[in-house]
Amino acid sequence: MKQISPSAQADARVQDVSAILREAPLSRGAVDALHDVARQMLKSTEGEVMALALRRIFDVVPAAQRVTVVAWPPHPEQGFVPLLPEEILRREGIPTSPVSASMARQAVESAQALYFLGALSDHAALSQAPSVIANQIQSAVYVPLLDEADAPIGLLCVDTPRPSAPILPPDFHFIRAVGALLAAALAADRIRQEAHRREMAAREEEVRRRAMANCLRIASHDLKNPLFAVQLAAHALSRGPKPEMRDVIVEEIQHAVVRAQRLIGTYLDASEMLDGRPLEAELADVDVHALLAEEIEFLRSVHRERPPQVENAVEPGTLRADPDKLRQVFANLLSNACKYSPPEAPIRVDSEGSGGWVTFRVSDRGVGIAPQDQASLFQPFQRVGDTSSTEGTGLGLWITRALVEAQGGRISVESTPGVGSTFCVRLPLRY
Ligand code: ADP
């Protein structure tokens, strides 16, 4: 499709106005007013152009008592929706006209400005229309505002309830010309908005593309650690270790494999989410105390040299949840609690049920998180505070939130810098 720039579009409509000026001589004041509106169009927003145009109608056409610009077609429930917000109309002191549905329809169907002069005009039959009678419209000009494809997008309505001072033919031509300018302003604004929308979409795509590239880089970097552990263990095995060491080495290999599998699971989840697909939960009865005990055991064996002190104070009992997702949630929160705390600092996980929900709290006495950073933690690629000495992707909490939400839950954080953090996971109690 041929692209039309806003200014080219405005030019095309200004030529429509030129045609009106040629065929219908207007007063000097009316022509100046049109030039004024046209000049402002190129530098103003749609709202400003409209307000200016409506004000100038009152300046040039003393008979005009009420004026409004509404969107076309009318809203199925709200009826005629004004295109200029009421507060602007009030501020500019513009009295709004009622909209006669019969006149509006006739003007739009004929795609031409309608000039109504009571019983005297070509449209005398409209005098009997209920909306004309109810609103005491004595004379009026209704101009359909057409877009670049000549489809109606709005309607300029000017009228007066005074029988003694009707809107006169030169006024009709002036109002018609203002309508043409307004249509151009509306069409130009639509094109501007469309250009803006496309620009935003292109930017979003760029952010997504970078996030994907980042993800791949991080994934390959993270996977090197467990692979390296397997390589070392394989090397140790090849040298014929003592039987008691053999078991330790085999266990190290198993742990490294679990770590690698979890990283792969995390990146698969991340890629689903970056693709805009929500994670889906597979619910089962989960013994959370036992699940957590396994996770703590795993964590301690991974950090065999300095096992973290984790207290499992989760109440016994089963919960309907997704076991793999819940395991991953605890794994991420516990791994962060270890990562962002001194090695000897205690970590505690407890639970409390009330009002159809159970809340799990993972508390540490680590570095804590500044209040202004707490809201952004759950966004992708967000690392906050001093992360120079800790490895990480900034994806963990983002994925954790998605894992919790997939199970119908919510996650939040309470933290005081230098004191510690508590991550709260609230899950619904399903029976
Ligand atoms: P990362 O891979 O960087 O750990 P996360 O998404 O898991 O990514 O965490 C995001 C950021 O939140 C971390 O970089 C860290 O700054 C902060 N954070 C997470 N958990 C804790 C915690 N328990 N204590 C202090 N800061 C934390």
Q: Structural class, from helix and strand content?
A: alpha+beta
- Proportion of residues in β-strands: 15-25%
Tally of strands: 11
Q: If you compute it from the alpha carbons, what radius of gyration comes out, rounded to the nearest whole angstrom?
A: 35 Å
What spatial order of strands do you see in the largest sheet?
6-8-9-11-10
- Beginning-to-end CA distance, first to last residue: 58 Å
By DSSP (H or I, 4+ residues per run), the number of helices equals: 12
Mean pLDDT over all positions: 85
Low-pLDDT stretches: 1-14
Give a list of the ligands: adenosine-5'-diphosphate
How would you sum up the global shape?
Answer: elongated
H/E order of the elements? HHHEHHEHEEHHEHEEHEEHHEE
Mind describing the biggest β-sheet? Answer: 5 strands, mixed
Percent helix range:
40-55%
Explained architecture:
With about 425 residues, the protein is an alpha+beta fold. It has twelve helices and eleven strands. The strands form three sheets. A five-stranded mixed sheet has the order 6-8-9-11-10. Strands 1-4-3-2 form a four-stranded antiparallel sheet, with helices on both faces. Strand 8 (about 345-355) and strand 9 form a beta hairpin. Helix 2 runs parallel beside helix 7 (about 170-240) and helix 9 crosses helix 10 (about 325-340). The chain is elongated and about 110 Å long. Mean pLDDT is about 85; it is low at about 1-15. The structure holds adenosine-5'-diphosphate (ADP). Adenosine-5'-diphosphate binds near residues 340, 367, 392 and 393.
